[in-house]
Structure formats: structure tokens, C-alpha cells
């Protein structure tokens, strides 16, 4: 997106500092040749209210200094909401990339961020028709565009590069199609000892090799709660973007509570088992490529043992040119 924007426009890239660990932040800039942030606000971690408030204050200062034509926010993080609120309060138009997603679970912080940002935004760039329909059901129809998914753009651009450059499978000692890929980061799973224990027990019962790229939150929870990591699980730190793509596209299946990983599994035609009771990516469930199991040990085991690839794999996320469409609409 930045490469296209900067062909004709001045882009000021602001990093709030919400993610500050190298494996969750800087590695993406290094591997994908993304321009370095013009500003890093250094907010860091903290309770949702304190973190979002600090971001709001610091983003507002940037906007008052720069007075941009648009504030472009992505996804559903606290940074997304803070950027949208700061822009709205300074009367600068807001464009939201990945608009219209709904899990219909208001206990998820991301759901609150999505809903509020969508009702603030002037331009809403939806990744799917379902997202457009969700907005219409809430009375949001002005400025709504189904442009496709920018993550699909990125995977098309970088999937082949990952296959050529990544040595992650060799480093972990796993063979293509002979392991499961797992990620876990949502507080509902990591902060509840019973849920985290059930997931790890399911991993052990499954028995086959599992590459578990663990978020820092998850690693801290495992240590703090004294959870046991099964011997068939290769627990790793977060991996770089290219390594992650390689792990995802070569896995027999993916187990995750991440929305982004659910999508990337679908892009690669890899079955996904989602460790949540709901998902914002309902299309992947309807087509049979994704199964919702929550943190039920027996459900997780059954889903892995019953894995079957659906015959059809429809194109759900656009044509791979979402960024180009977004830039054209902003212009």
C-alpha cells in the first residue's frame, strides 16, 4: 500500500508502538521493504483504556502538526480506533481498511474497535461482500467499497518469495505436509488456565508434530500458569513474515485464534481449525475450509482427525489488486 501511495502522494507513516517486540513489529519492515515509520509514538503495552488514551493524545498532536488530507487506519487494533477518533475530533476524513468485519462478540476488544471505527469512517474499504452487508445492516452505506483484501495482495506478492528464501522447515526439522501449524494469542485463550490447558492437552492427544509459533503473551501465560507443553509441540518465538507464510502454506492444517492466520490458511488452500467460538471470516467456514471448535479438547482432536479438503475453493477476497483500488479511491 505504501509503495503505491508514495508514487503520487506524501505519506506520513505513524507507528503507535502498540507492538514493539522485534518479532511482532520491526521484522515486517525489514523483510517486506516497507518504508520505515516517519514517527514512532512509543506507546507500548498497558490496559486498553490507558493504551488507547495515550495513542489518542499522541496521534492528535501529529494530526495538528501535519493536517493530512486523509487518515488511513487498518484493521481492528487499539491503534486503529485511536487513529480514527483523533482524526474525527480534528475533522480530518477517515478511511478504514478492512471495514465491515463482525464477529458479533462484543467481549472482544477488536469488535468494539471495528464497530466504532466503521461508524466514524468516511471511506470504508471492505475485503468481502459479507463485510458490505454487515455495514448495510447497521445503516452504513455511504462511502462503502468492496475492494478485496490487502492481505491477499501481500500473500500473492510474497508467497513465492517465502518459498524461495525461508529455511524455517529445515530449521525446525519438519517436512511439508507432515506437521500442523498453531498460533494462539487472544486473552480469552491465553488468560484462562482451563482453556489454555485444554488446547495444549488436545495438541498432545493429536500426537503429530505441531509447530507452535507462540505470541509473547502466550509464552508468558504458559510460564505463569505452569502449563505443560507436550513433547510433540515445537514451541517457537514469533517468526518473521516470510517464515510464517512458508509454515502456513506447507502445513497439513492450521490451528489458530488469529483472524489473519485464518485468512492466510484459506489463501493457501490449507484447512483451518479455529480455536474460537466465532469468527469474523464467516466465508471460510461456509465453504468448509474453516471449522470453529473453541477451546474444547475433544472438539479440537476430532477436527484434526476428521480433516478433509473441500473440493471447491472459491475466490472470496478479491483479485489481488485491493491496494490499487484503495489508492485510486483516495485520489
CATH superfamily of the largest domain: Glycogen Phosphorylase B
Helix content: 40-55%
Query: Can you tell me the CATH class of the largest domain?
Result: Alpha Beta
Gross geometry:
globular
Largest sheet, order of strands side by side?
9-8-7-10-11-12
Number of E-type strands: 12
**Strand residues, percent:** 5-15%
Element string (H = helix, E = strand): HEHEHEHEHEHEHHEHHEHEHEHEHEHH
Q: Which fold name corresponds to the CATH topology of the largest domain?
A: Rossmann fold
Radius of gyration from the alpha-carbon trace, in angstroms: 20 Å
Specify the structural class. alpha/beta
The CATH architecture classification of the largest domain is 3-Layer(aba) Sandwich
Q: How many structural domains can be distinguished in the coordinates?
A: 2
Low-confidence stretches: none
Mean pLDDT: 93
Amino acid at each position: 500500500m505504501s509503495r503505491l501511495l508514495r508514487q503520487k502522494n506524501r505519506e506520513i507513516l505513524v507507528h503507535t508502538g502498540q507492538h514493539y517486540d522485534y518479532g511482532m513489529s520491526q521484522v515486517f519492515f525489514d523483510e517486506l521493504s516497507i518504508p520505515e515509520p516517519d514517527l514512532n509514538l512509543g506507546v507500548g503495552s498497558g490496559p486498553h483504556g490507558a493504551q488507547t488514551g495515550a495513542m489518542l493524545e499522541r496521534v492528535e498532536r501529529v494530526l495538528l502538526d501535519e493536517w493530512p488530507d486523509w487518515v488511513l487506519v487498518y484493521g481492528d487494533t487499539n491503534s486503529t480506533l485511536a487513529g480514527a477518533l483523533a482524526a474525527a475530533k480534528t475533522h480530518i476524513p477517515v478511511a478504514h481498511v478492512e471495514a465491515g468485519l463482525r464477529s458479533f462478540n462484543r467481549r472482544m476488544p477488536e469488535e468494539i474497535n471495528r464497530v466504532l471505527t466503521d461508524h466514524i469512517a468516511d471511506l470504508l474499504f471492505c475485503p468481502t461482500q459479507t463485510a458490505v452487508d454487515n455495514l448495510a445492516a447497521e445503516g452504513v452505506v455511504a462511502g462503502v467499497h468492496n475492494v478485496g483484501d490487502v492481505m491477499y495482495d501481500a500473500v500473492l506478492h510474497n508467497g513465492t518469495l517465502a518459498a524461495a528464501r525461508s529455511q524455517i522447515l529445515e530449521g525446525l526439522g519438519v517436512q511439508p505436509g507432515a506437521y500442523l501449524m498453531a498460533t494462539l494469542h487472544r486473552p480469552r485463550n491465553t488468560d484462562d488456565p482451563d482453556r489454555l490447558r485444554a488446547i495444549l492437552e488436545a495438541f498432545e492427544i493429536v500426537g503429530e508434530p505441531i509447530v507452535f509459533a507462540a505470541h509473547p503473551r502466550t509464552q508468558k501465560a504458559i510460564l505463569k500458569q505452569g502449563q505443560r507443553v507436550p513433547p510433540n509441540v515445537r514451541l517457537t518465538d514469533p517468526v518473521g513474515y516470510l517464515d510464517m507464510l512458508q509454515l502456513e502454506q506447507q502445513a497439513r492444517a492450521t490451528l489458530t485464534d488469529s483472524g489473519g492466520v485464518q485468512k492466510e490458511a484459506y489463501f493457501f488452500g490449507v484447512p483451518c481449525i479455529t480455536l474460537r467460538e466465532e469468527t469474523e471470516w464467516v466465508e471460510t467456514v461456509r465453504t468448509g475450509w474453516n471449522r470453529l471448535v473453541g477451546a474444547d479438547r475433544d472438539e479440537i482432536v476430532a477436527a484434526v482427525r476428521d480433516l478433509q479438503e473441500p473440493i471447491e475453493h472459491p475466490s472470496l477476497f478479491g483479485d489481488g489488486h485491493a491496494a490499487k483500488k484503495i489508492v485510486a479511491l483516495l485520489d
